[in-house]
Amino acid sequence: QLQLVESGGGLVQPGGSLRLSCAASGFTLDYYAIAWFRQAPGKEREGVSCISPSAGRTSYADSVNGRFTISRDNAKNTVYLQMNSLKPEDTAVYYCAGRRAYSRYLSLLAASYDNWGQGTQVTVSS
Description:
The protein is mainly beta. The chain has strands spanning 3-7, 10-12, 18-25, 32-39, 46-51, 58-60, 68-73, 78-83, 92-100, 115-116, 120-124. Strands 2, 4, 5, 6, 9, 10 and 11 form a 7-stranded mixed β-sheet that branches. A hairpin with a 6-residue loop joins β5 and β6 (58-60).
Protein backbone atom coordinates (compact mmCIF):
# COMPACT_ATOMS: atom_id res chain seq x y z
CA GLN A 1 0.00 0.00 0.00
CA LEU A 2 1.19 3.50 -0.82
CA GLN A 3 2.30 5.36 2.31
CA LEU A 4 2.53 9.14 2.33
CA VAL A 5 4.28 11.38 4.86
CA GLU A 6 3.94 15.16 4.84
CA SER A 7 6.53 17.57 6.21
CA GLY A 8 7.46 21.24 6.03
CA GLY A 9 4.60 22.82 7.92
CA GLY A 10 5.08 25.45 10.57
CA LEU A 11 4.40 29.01 11.66
CA VAL A 12 4.93 31.79 9.13
CA GLN A 13 4.03 35.46 8.97
CA PRO A 14 1.54 36.76 6.40
CA GLY A 15 3.25 37.25 3.07
CA GLY A 16 5.78 34.54 3.83
CA SER A 17 6.49 31.22 2.14
CA LEU A 18 6.63 27.54 3.01
CA ARG A 19 7.36 24.41 1.00
CA LEU A 20 5.51 21.26 1.94
CA SER A 21 6.81 17.83 0.98
CA CYS A 22 4.89 14.61 0.50
CA ALA A 23 7.25 11.64 0.57
CA ALA A 24 5.97 8.29 -0.67
CA SER A 25 7.01 4.76 0.16
CA GLY A 26 5.72 1.34 -0.72
CA PHE A 27 5.25 2.14 -4.39
CA THR A 28 6.87 4.38 -6.96
CA LEU A 29 4.91 7.57 -7.56
CA ASP A 30 5.26 7.36 -11.34
CA TYR A 31 1.71 5.99 -11.73
CA TYR A 32 0.00 8.01 -9.02
CA ALA A 33 -1.92 11.25 -9.11
CA ILE A 34 -1.17 13.29 -5.99
CA ALA A 35 -3.25 16.04 -4.45
CA TRP A 36 -2.94 18.42 -1.54
CA PHE A 37 -5.94 19.09 0.67
CA ARG A 38 -6.36 21.28 3.71
CA GLN A 39 -8.77 21.44 6.60
CA ALA A 40 -9.20 24.37 8.96
CA PRO A 41 -10.99 24.00 12.32
CA GLY A 42 -14.75 23.86 11.83
CA LYS A 43 -14.47 23.69 8.04
CA GLU A 44 -14.72 20.94 5.47
CA ARG A 45 -11.66 19.48 3.80
CA GLU A 46 -10.76 21.54 0.73
CA GLY A 47 -8.85 20.47 -2.36
CA VAL A 48 -5.88 22.80 -2.88
CA SER A 49 -3.90 21.41 -5.79
CA CYS A 50 -3.25 18.22 -7.72
CA ILE A 51 -0.75 16.87 -10.22
CA SER A 52 -1.17 14.12 -12.77
CA PRO A 53 1.03 10.99 -12.80
CA SER A 54 2.71 12.28 -15.95
CA ALA A 55 1.98 14.71 -18.80
CA GLY A 56 2.74 17.62 -16.44
CA ARG A 57 -0.89 18.50 -15.75
CA THR A 58 -1.76 20.48 -12.63
CA SER A 59 -4.86 22.05 -11.12
CA TYR A 60 -5.39 24.60 -8.37
CA ALA A 61 -8.25 25.88 -6.25
CA ASP A 62 -9.17 29.46 -7.07
CA SER A 63 -8.16 30.51 -3.55
CA VAL A 64 -4.51 29.55 -4.12
CA ASN A 65 -4.07 29.93 -7.88
CA GLY A 66 -1.07 32.13 -8.61
CA ARG A 67 0.35 31.72 -5.10
CA PHE A 68 0.88 27.97 -4.76
CA THR A 69 2.83 25.66 -7.07
CA ILE A 70 2.70 21.88 -7.06
CA SER A 71 5.55 19.81 -8.48
CA ARG A 72 6.86 16.28 -8.36
CA ASP A 73 10.25 14.62 -8.36
CA ASN A 74 9.62 10.99 -9.21
CA ALA A 75 13.29 10.14 -8.72
CA LYS A 76 12.89 11.17 -5.07
CA ASN A 77 9.36 9.77 -4.87
CA THR A 78 8.24 13.14 -3.53
CA VAL A 79 5.64 15.78 -4.38
CA TYR A 80 6.04 19.37 -3.25
CA LEU A 81 3.70 22.28 -2.62
CA GLN A 82 5.42 25.65 -2.75
CA MET A 83 3.26 28.20 -0.96
CA ASN A 84 4.01 31.89 -1.44
CA SER A 85 2.25 35.08 -0.33
CA LEU A 86 0.63 33.18 2.51
CA LYS A 87 -2.48 34.60 4.15
CA PRO A 88 -4.04 33.93 7.56
CA GLU A 89 -6.87 32.13 5.79
CA ASP A 90 -4.35 29.56 4.54
CA THR A 91 -4.02 28.31 8.12
CA ALA A 92 -5.01 24.65 8.21
CA VAL A 93 -3.78 21.09 8.45
CA TYR A 94 -2.46 20.14 5.02
CA TYR A 95 -2.76 16.59 3.76
CA CYS A 96 -1.41 14.89 0.69
CA ALA A 97 -3.34 12.10 -0.96
CA GLY A 98 -2.68 9.72 -3.83
CA ARG A 99 -4.36 7.31 -6.18
CA ARG A 100 -3.13 5.13 -8.98
CA ALA A 101 -4.44 6.63 -12.21
CA TYR A 102 -3.90 7.06 -15.93
CA SER A 103 -1.27 9.57 -17.01
CA ARG A 104 -3.43 12.70 -17.36
CA TYR A 105 -5.70 12.17 -14.34
CA LEU A 106 -6.54 15.17 -12.15
CA SER A 107 -9.05 15.55 -9.31
CA LEU A 108 -9.56 17.89 -6.37
CA LEU A 109 -12.25 15.70 -4.84
CA ALA A 110 -11.28 13.98 -1.59
CA ALA A 111 -13.37 10.94 -2.47
CA SER A 112 -11.14 10.31 -5.49
CA TYR A 113 -8.16 9.37 -3.32
CA ASP A 114 -7.57 6.26 -1.27
CA ASN A 115 -4.14 6.89 0.24
CA TRP A 116 -3.67 9.70 2.73
CA GLY A 117 -0.89 11.12 4.84
CA GLN A 118 -1.23 12.15 8.47
CA GLY A 119 -1.14 15.89 7.80
CA THR A 120 1.11 18.81 8.67
CA GLN A 121 0.02 22.02 10.39
CA VAL A 122 0.45 25.35 8.61
CA THR A 123 -0.21 28.48 10.66
CA VAL A 124 -0.07 31.93 9.10
CA SER A 125 -0.04 34.59 11.78
CA SER A 126 1.82 37.70 12.85
